[in-house]
Give the backbone structure.
Amino acid sequence: MISLTEVTKNYGSRASADSVQIGPMTVEIAAGGITALVGPNGAGKSTILTMIGRLLDVDSGRIEVAGHDVVNSPSKTIAKILSILRQENHFVTRLTVRQLVGFGRFPHSKGRLTAEDERHISEAIDFLDLAELENRYLDQLSGGQRQRAYVAMVLAQNTDYVLLDEPLNNLDMQHAVQMMQQLRRAADELGRTVVIVLHDINFAAHYSDQILAMKDGVVAEHGPPQEIMRDAVLSRVFNTEVTVIEGPHGPLAVYY
Amino acid sequence: MTTQLDRKRGQDPRRPTPRGETSGGARGWAPAEHAARAPGGRARRSGAITSRRHGLRYVAVMALLGALSLFFTLGILGYGNPMPFGSSGYRLIAQMRLETLLIIGVVAFCQAMATVAFQTATNNRIITPSIMGFESLYIAIQTGAVFFFGIAGVTMLTGLPQFLMQAAAMVLFATILYSWLLSGRFSNIHIMLLVGVVIGGGLGSLSTFMQRVLTPSEFDVLTARLFGNIGNGRAEYLPYAIPIALVAGGVLWWRARRLNVVALGRNTADNLGVNHKREVMVILLLVSVLMAMSTSLVGPMTFLGFLVATLAYQFADTYSHRMLFPMAMLIGYTVLAGAYFIMRNVFYAEGAVTLIIELLGGIVFLIVLMRKGRL
């Protein structure tokens, strides 16, 4: 379980009028399944996600993941509990897919890959259908393939909690759907707890178990998709007229 | 259409799944058909060497560099020795030349390790510690001494305490710059690089200004100091420079696996449990020690580090610092020893090795870059 207690983050100097505050936010994200973070731009989704992943300092409050205080626990302990993938990933080093995924094993092997590590690497690669590409260099891949390789790296890290910041960015329809299906399988078959920032509310409704809607730095709604997928709720969260219709695979938000 | 929809509905991903068995942390992967061998029959292995060809190329390049450095070493030791072979005079001359070789070795070691580690820590492959104000500081110290104390100032800067003081000043300068820029509200490596380059440029202009008002003779003495000068390197500092450089380099080697992760950038390194900020501070401190040793021994070597590191990335083509460091060192030794040998025996101008390094090195660098098309 991920629990946030009165977590805040301030952008800009506190005194000035244009400073932005995220939080105070108190929320519990249950273990297991996929939780989608949605909300308008600037709502603080990525801020909260990167703070849970201890890539961003918390100004005040407390974040616990599986009982570990994320801020004060050693980073190498946390690295075995949660993995986080941010939006932009650019490496100066030239790496093959397999080398990149191999780095996911660093918290366990400290760079000395064992047979056990190799097994995890192969499995993560196979899980994301990258076996054919595993010896290609990242700069020889398309954007979608590269995105899959990054996800394979955090899966190889073999942590209970996987945090992903907009992994569908730059993916076309086919690859976005594939990515969500693979994440769904990671949650169902591998028992991972996936927390994911999504922009498309319909993807969130279809693939996630819980939706955490944020607005102006605080939690606006938190519940299963059926509760969030309502005209009034979505219109309020996104500041846009949204109509929810019954689609062939569940509710669909229409907002064009 | 209907069947397709049905099939999709049949595998509705939202269906509830039993999670009780997987909550204990001891999860297995799905019983998939992951083979230990790829379809081609090749064993699926990770590691710094991607293929047999890659490994062979690395060994071949290292062997070639080794042969070249051996050739230049023997050439510098034995070529053009006026005394008959085996006489005591011959040995005396060879021994003096051995000191030069030691200086070349230390400089190559320091510049290679410092530049590769610096570029890893700062996640860039263009800016080197030389450009970041290290050598400008050295130049400013030397110029300031001559400016304020005349030719006597040069002698004031010679001697063991002065060597250690100057090295300490450079390390202190670097540490203050890094800790100021990497902590607090900047916390941004690009700002640090920019500030470093600006400070370097400012110190450079200050030195140029002071040089303008020197007398010609003072300027002449100073110039001899400011060229990267191997033939006139200060061998008396070697007993201190070698152990200090070895310790700093040893620590970098020991942390090489963490360096591999630091090279992936802050977010990825932090995700993998490597404290990026602390790691970068340690690396930059060691880099400043190495640079201080090299610069105090022979003066500025502006282009050498960049050339050596870039060529090492091209030829080694790996993330592993345990492969990059030795290759960068060997390239550095070959380039320096080769340049010294040529300048000494062809142009009789052993002082100005940096000239040939920048000329030949620049051409080699451009050729490699044009052929590969990437940094």
Observations:
- Chain A touches chain B through 71 residues (CB under 8 Å).
- The radius of gyration of chain A is 18 Å.
